[in-house]
Amino acid sequence: MTTTFDPNVNRHRDRGGRFTNPRRRRGSPGNPPPQPPQLSNKDLATLQRLLRDYTQGYLREKIILRAAHNIAKHHSKRGKDHLLEWTVFFLFLAALFVAYATPFNAPATTAATIAPATASASSVEPAVADESPSPESQRQLASKIVSYLTAKGWRFSQQAGEVTIVYLEGKNADGSDNDNAPDQFNDRRVVLTFKDGQPTIGGNWVATISPGDYYIKNKMNPKGTAFVRPGEYREGWTIGTHQGASSAPQEALVQAAPITVYRDNISADTGDFGINQHGGWDAPLNQVGNTSAGCLVGRTVEGHQEFMQMVKSDRRAQNSAFRFDTLIIPKGGF
Known about the structure:
- This protein is an alpha+beta fold.
- The chain is about 30% helix and about 20% strand.
């Protein structure tokens, strides 16, 4: 259709004199301005739950980032008009949460201890392979673990001949923080014992408490891949056999009571999911891969065998029905 411009009305007319495609200013009734993203009730509930769980010190930054990505992706399917706005909005929100990685309910500290902790946050390093930490660093690590467990009111044994299993998220062997990057063995599996009334580190191995990227992409559960929620789990594991999907069976601690995991959509899920404590078949340090679908995994064969020998030496394990406590300290716990 050919149009002519009428300067008297600043509108286009066709040959019949009818107005076509009038120029409307942004914000006019026929052309409202773009609206900022509006959260649905479901999204608000998700974010409220995320904030609540995070303030309890249980939600890890990897899950926060994945939640932000999933919500942004969901809204991009509803319409591409505000894809950029949604993406920036949720990634900014995720970054805001990650910036405050220390749980809000951590034990109170004095002003004198806050400055060193803040300074060390900028010097976080990538995870390093198993090394030989100094005896002094292990004494300090044992003391920090006991202080944390005591402040939390979590149960641990102080009896000779008994062990307590502790996992440390995002820690190196000497207790220093690492970057806690995804799909890497950058956590610690620790056996805490007491000798002459003093806490000692009986064993300290590199491990992961998070699933590998393989199972994040190839989910075994329609609800999503499981991330074990850090916390205290009493009488949750017993000595048994772990059977991997494509590996030989190995002696391990197998789940024997309900525990709580977070799925991809941030929802908490409690039950018996076969979250075992097994070995990682000497997988590369920087690739958890398919060695964990949510289990608590020690990286090396030798290290896992040492771990099993140590937990079996617990005098209570002479009873085949005995179940081990397991305590998982989140990143930023100390």
